[in-house]
Each structure stands twice: as structure tokens, then as C-alpha cells.
Amino acid sequence: MRAVVFDEPGEEMSIEEVPTPECPPDGVVVETEACGVCRSDWHAWQGDWSWVGVESKPGLIFGHEPVGIVQEVGPNVESIEVGDRVTNPFNLADGSCPMCQQGHQNVCEQSVPMGFVDFSKGAFAEEYAVHAADTNVVTLPDDVDPVAVAGLGCRFATAFHGITQRADLGAGDWVAVHGCGGVGLSAVHVADALGANVVAVDLKQDALDKAVELGATHTVKVDEVEDVPREVKGFTPRNRGADVSVDALGIAQTCRNSVRSLSTLGQHLQIGLTTSEEEGEVSLPVDEVVFDEREFLGSYGMPAHEYEDIFRMMDAGTIDPGAIVSETVSLEEVPETIASMGEYDTVGIPVCNEF
Which SMART domains has this protein been placed in (predicted)? Predict the structure, then answer.
């Protein structure tokens, strides 16, 4: 089969003929219909995230936001059949650890990041395999467009889980989203769907314009203001600050700005992973956090059972993940699309749908 194959950090990737994946006894093999192209792919292509144990090795196949049709089912699988249209979270669980048993499969003790390790290759290929299918694989509703939901594996799911499950967000609350790439725009859209007032923060005007389309009520263009947290607070009643503030980018500046945009008792939600500049470490205004009793939360992917909440909101017309898809590309265009993400040129979510 054809696949985009990684060789060395920062070097152009190529389309190669590789063996088709073997079906795990507890897993499935899926023919790829669509796969989101994520900035996380760019980080892995650059060789980032060694500080969290991710090491991109020659021969790796990226692609962790897949949708496809099941071609083969392992003998130990009970809930998935050949012909099902499916998706899955990028952070695959084994289903057996204490976290999994409590419903927190996204933080499984044996979590496997699909498309970032050589023993769970990704979906920038004609076919891909998923282990522990009864835990990880989700059957899509019949009327769902594969391209529209190709961001559910990572960006939209991470934002949805963070906004709906990690943060305590209600209608009328104030939310600031720092960084309006794919995951940030997803956070804007979900927060708006829950009835929040959303302040979108970014350097790029086209990203802010897209955020407004998706429900942002106010915007802050970072290079036009002296103090981002003060601007965010200025939109809120009595300048008190945001009830929830999201860092959807992961650089030191956005993380600190997010924490400092909060109200008393506010919640910071960290969705973006850090870059090679931070290597996982960011200095924060700790005394402000203490004095105002602010919270610092993380959101990492989403357990498969929460997809039903997304599908219900889609069916009700409350959310539309497809509204964040910016373009479709072919498998041949994936290497260039990933490389361009270093310049933050992409608005929304690009999706590969030609294999």
C-alpha cells in the first residue's frame, strides 16, 4: 500500500510502498477515507517532544485523526464489524488499567499515541490498524461526512473533552481561547455551543475572523495590544476576567497570558503541548494563582465513549466539526501541508481525503 513515510527530522517525507498492516487479534484494519493533518504531525516531523518520550524514528507513518471503513476484524473483537465506518481517539487505550476501568481511557496507563510510535503507525496510508478495538474504535452515524469528522481523533476531541468534562463551564460564563489554530477554533466552537461568551486571542486576523464565524463574541489581536490579559479582562463584567481560559497553542507566552486572564476562582485549561523552546517547562505567576484560588487543568485527547456526546450535539445542530475543516488535500500533498505548519499558515483543519 502507499503511505507517507518519515525518514529524518525536518527532511521532506516521501510516498512509499509499504506492507499493509496486520490485524491484531483484538483489533481491526481500516481502509482510510480521511485523516486530519495536525500541527502535532509537524512537531513529530521536527523531532519534538523527546522530553515526553516521543521519538520519531525512520519508517514512521504519521496520521492520528482517521476515518475509514473496517476491512478486517480480529477474532477477539465483539463490537465492530467489517464494513463499519469508524474513527478512534489518537491516544489508544488497552481497556484494562484502573484509569480505563474508571472511564478515563484517554489517560490509560499503557496509552499508545497512534501515528507517533513505530508499533502503532498512523493513517497517512491506504490502510491502518487499531488495537483494542472494543475500547478504542467508534462506529460513526450513517449520515456523517468522513471529512467533516476527521478532526475528532485529536483536535476537536481534545477541545471538546476539555471544555465539557475538565472545565466547569456554563451558559453565560466567559471563556478566553489563546491560539486559534485547529484545536483553538474547536474550543471556541464548543464553548459557544454551551452558551459561553468567547474571547478569541491570536496574532493572525484570518484566524480571528474564523473564530468569529465559529462563535467568538470578542477578539484580541496580540500584536495590536500591550497587555493581552488586560484586554481579555476588559470585555468581561467589572473587568473580572475569564471563568475559563484556554491555552490552545502551548508556548510560554500563551500559557502565561491564559493564566493571567482568569477571574478569581477561574480555571486555566492547558490543551496545547509545548515546543522545543519550553520542553515542557513554563514559568507561571504562582502567587496570583494562590491569591485568586485559580485552577490549572490539562486535557489530553478524549475517551472513546464521549464521542456519543459529540454525535448527539451534531444531530441537534448545536456543533458542526466540519465547519472547522479548511481544505482537503491528497496523500501526495500531505508532506508539504505538514511542512507549512511551521509558519502557522493554516487556518482551521486540513484533511487528507485522497489516498
Answer: PKS_ER
Dist. CA 170–CA 195, nearest whole Å? 7
Q: How is 94-117 classified by DSSP, letter by letter?
A: -S-SHHHHTT-GGG-TT-EETTSB
Query: Domain containing 229 — which CATH number?
Result: 3.40.50.720
**Which tens digit of pLDDT belongs to each residue from 225-268?**
999 999 999 999 999 999 999 999 999 999 999 999 999 999 99
Check whether residue 52 and residue 142 sit in a common domain: yes
Q: How far apart are CA 35 and CA 26, in angstroms?
A: 23
CB of 23 closer than 8 Å to CB of 325: no
Grid cell digits, residue 320: 458542526
Pairing between β-strand 14-17 and β-strand 2-5 as defined by DSSP bridges: antiparallel
The model's pTM is: 0.95
Count of domains forming the chain: 2
User: pLDDT digit string (tens) for 135-155?
Assistant: 999 999 999 999 999 988 899
Q: Where does a domain end: 298, 313, 341?
A: 298
Do 148 and 183 lie in one domain? The reply is no
Whether residue 179 sits in one domain with residue 321: no
Per the structure, the complete domain to which residue 81 belongs is given by 2-154+302-354
Closest C-alpha to 77, from 30, 111, 110, 44: 30
Tell me, yes or no, whether 202 and 288 share the same domain.
yes
**Within the chain, where are the H helices?**
39-46, 98-101, 133-136, 155-161, 182-193, 205-213, 228-235, 252-260, 286-291, 307-315, 334-340
Copy the grid coordinates of residue 272.
Answer: 496545547
